[in-house]
TrEMBL record:
Encoding gene (name): Bm11306
UniProt record similarity statement: Belongs to the mitochondrion-specific ribosomal protein mL40 family.
This protein's record includes keyword Ribonucleoprotein: yes
Organism for this UniProt entry: Brugia malayi
Name of the protein described by the UniProt record: Large ribosomal subunit protein mL40
A GO cellular component entry from the record: mitochondrial large ribosomal subunit
InterPro entries: Ribosomal_mL40, Ribosomal_mL40_metazoa/plant
Amino acid sequence: MELKKAASICLNEMFYLQLSEDEKDERAALEMEYKRYLNKLAVMDTRWIAKSVQKQENALQKLKMLSPELYKAALEPDECFLQNFVYRGPTLTPPIESYEPPDGHYIDVSKKWLC
């Protein structure tokens, strides 16, 4: 058994990749650049959503001034969309069969102060 374990360790060490300092620095810089890019995308998405919501609110306010009836109709849910909406997948997560919940006992570790 020990022989197999030793052979496994030798194989693992054999395939371990030794990186030079330049390669490590290059990879770290690339990772940082990628994280900045992802952050920039997230900020752009957030701004786009905020602008879209603001434009929608402005349009609804203008519609309210022009025609209160159309404004009320615009706020109603779209029945065609709701009729064609299909949800697939579990509506609830089934319980785990072998899970036993904790019984609620705890150890009081708060300090007791004497008055």
